[in-house]
Each structure stands twice: as structure tokens, then as C-alpha cells.
Structure prediction request, 350 residues.
Amino acid sequence: MLEFLLAVILLMVLVLPLTVHFIERNLEVYLFIMGFFAVTSSHFCCEGAGWSLHLVEESLIEPLMITAAVLLFGFMVYMFREKITRSIVWIEHKVGSKVFCFFLVTLLGIFSSVITAIISAIILVEVINALKFPKEFEKRLVIFGCFSIGLGAALTPIGEPLSTIAVAKLKGVPYHADFFFLLKHLGVFIVPGVLGIGVLAALLQPSVKEGKTLGLSENEKETIKDVFMRALKVYVFIMALIFLGHGFKPIIDTYIIKLPGLVLYWINTISAVLDNATLAAAEISPAMSLNQMQMTLMGLLISGGMLIPGNIPNIIAAGKLGITSKDWARIGLPFGFSLMMIYFTIFLFL
Prediction:
């Protein structure tokens, strides 16, 4: 009965945000409600699971670090937006577009682990808004940038919700995950990937057909209210994911951890259409082997860049710059599957 109930909740978590616009717009609250029901279901049906003082403390404390980072760096970007824009244009003129694109994509990817994926995406939007590249060129640059940010942000638990949840769930035995756990175990895969995407961004060439078409531009300027609301949403979002992860623990321990790492890797291509942090909450378990954990997270991180709903940076950049789902899929899907195949080959040899 418990497994059926949790399966229904999981299906609602995965499907309804894609099909109901109201839920999509209020995803954080919806996931919080679903997480509450998942934990409550486990509480009455499974000994040792469900509500506890430790879970409540964890749900209140774990979101604080990433929320504080989002608030701090969001406020800094808001205060110094004009100076940032002027500096961007000056640097691009000095170093040239190719070098500029390489460092833009690479540095945003690496530093997103410190300033958060959300702030990196906002900076990417500001950069694109300031530059005057052809529109199609900018679309490719934005999507490459979001792939890089989505990968790099996973190096620390303050980078993005997925890494926050992964570290929170692996804090106990046997991994005792600390702040540098993901850097130590995923860095060897992520850092070369970010550098490789940066090289590809430097090789981008505007199409002859693009001519002098206007570049992308930001739909609405951010307000100080937006800065605080975004931080609040991140806090609720992380809390909801902690509840979901704890509530789904019986399913994870019964089914997920028995799957080979390479199977989990390809299953997680569904994070192209579903937020990868939500899937991480439903899949990651300390009972997994290191190999399973690495492949699961890499599958989530790469495929999260393929379509707009897969990752928070995609949603921010596409929404602010007016990139359509069709345009994103046209570039993101083939590029994402190419990355998946490259890493799949690496995992096979390892």
C-alpha cells in the first residue's frame, strides 16, 4: 500500500508541473505540499521513516547556506548592474569575441559553484543583454552557458539545489559528505566538461544568414523585490526537496539502489523535461555505491541542460531573454545527447 501511495505522489510530482500551468508557476509550494504528503505517508506505513525532529531541523537548516548565497550575490548584481554591463562591453572589445565567449562560459560554469547557478544565470542574461551579437549566435551562446553553469554549480552544496540535496542526503554513513565531497568525487568529470564547453563556445561562428539581426534582450528589469522573492523561493524549494527525498526513501532503498549505474545514467535523461534537483531528491541514497552515485548525478546534470524545464539556469535565461522551447530543443537536445555519449564512453572504460 505504501509503495502504491508513494508511486502516485511521485507521478504527480513528475507529471503535473509539465501539464498544469498554475502548478508550474507555483512549483515551490506544490513540491512542498507533495513532500509533506510523502513524509506523512511513510510515517504511518514504514517503521523508522516519516516525521522526526531530525528531519524538521534538517529541512530548516540545510536551505540556509544556498539561500544566503542567492540573496547576497543577487543583491550585489542588482546594485552594480550598470557597472557590470559597461565592464562586459569593454572587455569584449579588448579581447575579441572568441576569447570572451570562452572565458564567459568557462568562468560562469566554475564560479557558479560559489555564487550559485541562479546568480550565474542572471549574470549571463546581463552579458547577453549588453552585447550586440546576432540573435542566433546569442541563443547558442546562452544554451552553452547554461550547460556549463548546470555542470559547474554541482561542485559545491551552495551551487544549486541538486548539489545541496545530494550532500544533505549523503552526510551520514558511509560517505559523511562535507562541503568538498562533490568536488572530490565529481570534479574530475565536471571541470573538463566545463572547459570543453568553453572551447566549443569560442568556436561558435555567426551564420552568414544572420546578418545584422538584433540580439536577444531582457524582457523585464529585475527589482529589489525580485531579489528577495527569489531567495525565499529557493529556501522553500530546498525544504520541499528534503521532504520528498525522505518521503521516497522506502522506494529508493527497495528499487533504485539495485539498478546498475549505467542504467541510472540513461534513465536520468528524463531530467531534460523535469527539474534535475527534484529527481535527485527521489533517487540519491547513502545506500548507493560511489559508482552509482557518480553516474546518477552526471546523468542528471548533463540532461538537465537539454530542455528549458531541466534546470534552474535554463528557466531563468530562457524566460528573461525570450528563448522559446522549440529554439532551445533545436540546440540543446543534439548537444546534450552528444555530451551524454561522450561521458557514457568514459564511464564504460572506467
About this structure: The CA atoms of residues 262 and 344 lie 8 Å apart. The chain is about 75% helix and 0% strand. The radius of gyration is 20 Å. The longest helix spans residues 325-349.
